[in-house]
Design brief:
The protein is of the alpha/beta class and 217 residues long. The chain is 48% helix and 15% strand. The chain has a domain of 148 residues: 3-Layer(aba) Sandwich (Rossmann fold), CATH 3.40.50.300. The longest helix is centred in the last third of the chain and has 24 residues.
Length: 217
């Protein structure tokens, strides 16, 4: 099965993508991971990406597309893959279509995780991370036993700069402006499936499997 997961910041794309990829037995391909892998492997597009990453600049669409084309052509993707964080623009959508055509394959589903904006803001604003072990907490839904202290390692908990309310709202505005055409693109192809990300992790996971016409193993 070849699918991708879309959704704004704070809906749990990464968490669900990992679980779904294991359930389906296909590789989980995330933008940051494959860029770093391409750099490590010294591929031609990896070398191009490294130049931008080393300077702190955004990696251009053309380079990201090249890295994805290399990755989905690998042997472990023959039975399918799950894309997380790609495509983000119409240009990337068109490029992905081209890659799949070259592979004589098609996209089975695009899962669009949704949640009300207020719920996303609450979810992200309440998030706290441990400076020592990167454990994640939530002030309302998963608080530490001692305020400001990690249960696991005793490290200090902190709030990411981009998890403040004003920044979250801006991130959501940018996402909606950039990704709305992508959602429309896949909806027009009749492969988009909206799944609510409200509720616990297991409920969302089961909702995704239901949208794919599957039941958890």
């Amino acid at each position: 099965m070849r699918l991708l997961i879309l959704g704004p910041p704070g809906v749990g794309k990464g968490t669900q993508a990992k679980r779904v990829s294991v359930e389906l037995g296909v590789p989980h391909i995330a933008t940051g991971d494959i860029l770093r892998e391409a750099v490590r492997n010294g591929t031609e597009t990896g070398k191009k990406a490294k130049a931008f990453m080393d300077s702190g600049a955004l990696v251009p669409d053309a380079v990201v597309i090249g890295v994805f084309a290399e990755r989905v052509a690998q042997a472990d993707c023959r039975a399918g893959f799950l894309l997380d964080g790609f495509p983000r623009t119409l240009e990337q959508c068109t490029a992905l279509d081209g890659c799949l055509t070259d592979l004589r394959a098609g996209l089975d589903s695009a899962i669009n995780l949704t949640a009300p904006r207020a719920a996303i803001v609450e979810r992200l604003e309440g998030r706290r991370l441990c400076r020592g072990c990167d454990a994640s907490y939530h002030m309302k839904y998963l608080p530490p036993k001692r305020a400001g202290v990690c249960d696991r390692c005793g490290g200090q908990l902190y709030q990411r700069d981009d998890d403040h309310a004003a920044t979250i709202v801006n991130r959501l505005d940018v996402y909606e402006k950039q990704t709305a055409p992508v959602i429309d693109f896949y909806r027009s192809k009749k492969v988009l499936k909206d799944v609510s990300s409200e509720g616990d992790v297991n409920a969302v996971f089961n909702g995704i499997l239901a949208a794919l016409g599957r039941a958890a193993k």
